[in-house]
Known about the structure:
- By secondary structure, the protein is mainly alpha-helical.
- The chain has 5 helices and no strands.
- 55% of the residues lie in helices and 0% in strands.
- Residues 75-82 have low confidence and may be disordered.
Amino acid sequence: MTTTLQQRSGASSWQAFCEWVTSTNNRLYVGWFGVLMIPTLLAATICFVIAFVAAPPVDIDGIRDGSFESQGQASGQNRLLAVGIEREALT
Length: 91
């Protein structure tokens, strides 16, 4: 028993982390997929919020004439807008 406790106390921090990740005694099972997923989702959420706040205003209704159309380059083409609505459906 003494040797078991002595070996366990000498375990490296990486080994302790591996045991914690794969342990089913935790209240919330993380697993190796969770080790990758949780920081990735956190970074993606922060990036989305920053991009949403910092985005410039957009004219979805198409009331104003855009610079692309005023140059005659669109000339009646049925383009898709950022929201996925066809241009002719708006008029």
